[in-house]
Design a protein that fits this description.
By secondary structure, the protein is mainly β. The chain contains five helices and 29 strands. Strands 11, 12, 13, 17, 18, 19, 21 and 22 form an eight-stranded antiparallel β-sheet that branches. Strands 1, 2, 3, 4, 5, 6 and 7 form a seven-stranded antiparallel β-sheet that branches.
Length: 431
């Protein structure tokens, strides 16, 4: 490891003294064949989108932090990178929603975050169907579910938890008319749940109205939230409460002899306002206790210029690394992802070293013999570049050639550059 690090550092210092060619080796661009881009019709059918570059370029201009007027969502498009997707690559997927209020907008997010970037646009791409749209409110509404829906809840086949059936409180069934994006949090007395009860995000398809209710396991004394997104199938999640002053604390609180009253007033939920939902009545330390459960709407945030999105994995994983990625692979990217051992993935730090090495390569009029790992793919952000690798074995060293097929131009690494490259990719010594 020490020898490897010294080689890289020595190579980098020597390269800085070498002159670069007038032809830039690295010319990153939006490469369509690296991506699979698709959308959904209003009815939820998948359609392929050919305008890959337009989707990848969305929200790259000046940002806006306000969506004015009544919102109509027309289409959401998903761009997923093909081939090797590096572990926790923040640029492995881009989601773009096209909508209209007082102006036209594109709203985007990356794969590792639930925070959005928005941009005003003069016109929609040609693939956006503006004949049909979905009207979405800025604020959600809460309504008491009809008696018929409560009877459906009674008939729902709940999965048992450790052999215990969850019993629903039928009158607690509520319906939520979604907002454009944001989340609903719930609190009980001086405790809060760690995760939101409902999340909204921009969509271009018709979604069923979400419903939720309170259920109870009389054996474990655990309350549950019961969810429905198609009025037939319900899921359940136990409440995990934390002290508001000690958010890291987390526990499944038991409620002896629990009963619940629904006290919510139907209507629109204001931003940040705690709205009473239920009264919880139970026994604690032999005494009757009544606590109020409230719900609060937290609107999603549109990031300002210069703000970086926060990772949704920050509680259990380091933030996604941003920076260049370099992957060597035996086969070209196609419809199927590459699998080991047909590719070599290196770290972001090593990728930066390779990028520096490539910048110092000189244009030549010849190639070598095709290498086993014939392809080298660079990515940075949504852009990329591909090279074909070839080599020529000389008595004491290995010459490394990189051909850019789009320009039909071959470059040769310097002697020191080849040493750095082979230290990072020793597999090419064995080709």
């Amino acid at each position: 490891m020490f020898k490897r690090g010294m080689t890289i550092l020595l190579g980098a210092s020597l390269l800085s003294a070498c002159g670069a060619s007038d032809i830039e080796v690295i010319q990153l661009d939006y490469i369509e064949k690296q991506w699979n881009v698709e959308s959904y019709t209003k009815e939820g059918e998948i359609v392929q989108i050919d305008e890959t570059k337009e989707v990848l370029m969305a929200c790259e201009g000046e940002r806006t932090t306000e969506l004015k007027g009544d919102i109509t969502v027309y289409q959401t498009v998903f761009a997923g990178r093909k081939g090797v997707v590096p572990y926790m690559d923040p640029y492995s997927m881009k989601v773009v929603t096209y909508l209209e209020g007082d102006e036209r907008y594109a709203v985007c997010r990356e794969s590792y975050t639930n925070q959005f970037v928005a941009q005003k646009i003069d016109s929609f791409p040609t693939f956006v169907n503006t004949n049909e749209g979905i009207e979405v409110q800025h604020l959600p509404r809460v309504e008491q579910a009809a008696t018929m829906e409560q009877n459906n809840l009674l008939k729902a086949d709940f999965a048992e938890i450790d052999g215990n059936r969850i019993t629903p409180f039928l009158h607690t069934l509520l319906e939520i008319q979604p907002a454009f994006f944001g989340e609903l949090e719930i609190e009980l007395g001086d405790k809060t749940t760690r995760h939101p009860i409902v999340q909204f995000e921009p969509r271009g398809i018709e979604m069923p109205t979400p419903q939720f209710a309170i259920g109870y396991d009389e054996k474990t004394l655990q309350p549950y939230t019961l969810y429905s997104f198609d009025r037939q199938y319900f899921m359940q999640r136990s409440f995990k409460f934390a002290d508001m002053d000690d958010y890291e604390s987390m526990e499944n609180q038991g409620f002896e002899e629990l009963s619940v009253d629904t006290i919510v007033e139907p209507g629109e939920l204001k931003e940040g306002e705690a709205v009473p939902l239920y009264s919880f009545h139970y026994i604690k330390d032999g005494e009757p206790v009544t606590e109020t459960m409230t719900m609060r709407y937290i609107s999603g945030t549109l990031l300002k210029e210069g703000e970086e999105p926060a990772s949704i994995y920050e509680d259990w994983m380091h933030d996604s690394e941003k920076g260049p990625r370099v992957v060597a692979h035996r086969k070209p990217f196609d419809e199927n992802a590459l699998t080991y051992p047909d590719f070599i993935e290196i770290s972001t730090e090593e990728s930066e070293q390779v990028m520096e090495v490539l910048k110092e390569a000189e244009p030549v009029g010849r190639k070598g013999e095709p290498a086993d790992y014939r392809y080298l793919t660079l990515t940075e952000g949504w852009k990329g570049q591909e090279f074909e690798i070839s080599y020529k074995q000389r008595s004491k060293k290995l010459d490394i050639y990189l051909t850019d097929p789009l320009r039909d131009q071959t470059f040769k690494l310097s002697s020191k550059g080849a040493e750095v490259f082979l230290d990072i990719f020793p597999e090419y010594k064995e080709s």
